[in-house]
Amino acid sequence: MKISFETGNLPWTTYTPFIRFSFPEINKLKIFTEAQFNICNRDVDGGQSSYEEIGLSFGLSYPISKHLNFIGHYLFVGYSGDNNKEGAWLGKGKFAADANILRAQLGLQYIF
Q1: What is the largest CA-CA distance in the chain?
Q2: pTM here?
């Protein structure tokens, strides 16, 4: 299960089912990629706006203790139905890479 808490006042609600593939560890550092399907919705005057994405996200994790990891994500490469591609998008079509700062995520991962 993946739960995120946004620190910005963003009008979007995003649901992200994903599958993670971890590469071999390098000195405790885990590098991974996630195949994900993002479903993004927001309420707007007169209706609701939404778009979908499917692609890959990349990240690193490093153990702090036996059950706690520091984790970071950045970048998205794949299909995006978002028609409002502003900022650090590499390609403005349906298949593109998003390197905007809003894609950066830092957090803690607790492993039961």
Answers
A1: 53
A2: 0.73
Determine the residue type at 58. Answer: F
**pLDDT one-digit tens code per residue, 32-62:** 999 988 887 776 665 557 778 899 999 999 9
pLDDT at 9 over 70: no
| Backbone torsions φ then ψ of 5, nearest 5 degrees | -120, 120
Per-residue DSSP letters for 87-98? Answer: SSEE-SSSEEEE
Alpha-carbon torsion angle 6, 9, 15, 19, nearest 10: -40
Give the pLDDT mean for 64-81. 90
Please state the domain extents for the chain: 13-110
C-alpha angle 106-15-99 in degrees, rounded to nearest 5: 45
Q: Are 88 and 71 in contact (CB under 8 A)?
A: no
Measure Cα distances from 71 to 31, 44, 62, 110 in Å. Answer: 10, 33, 7, 10
| Count of all residues that appear for the chain in the document | 112
Instruction: Give the C-alpha separation, 65 to 77, whole Å.
Output: 31
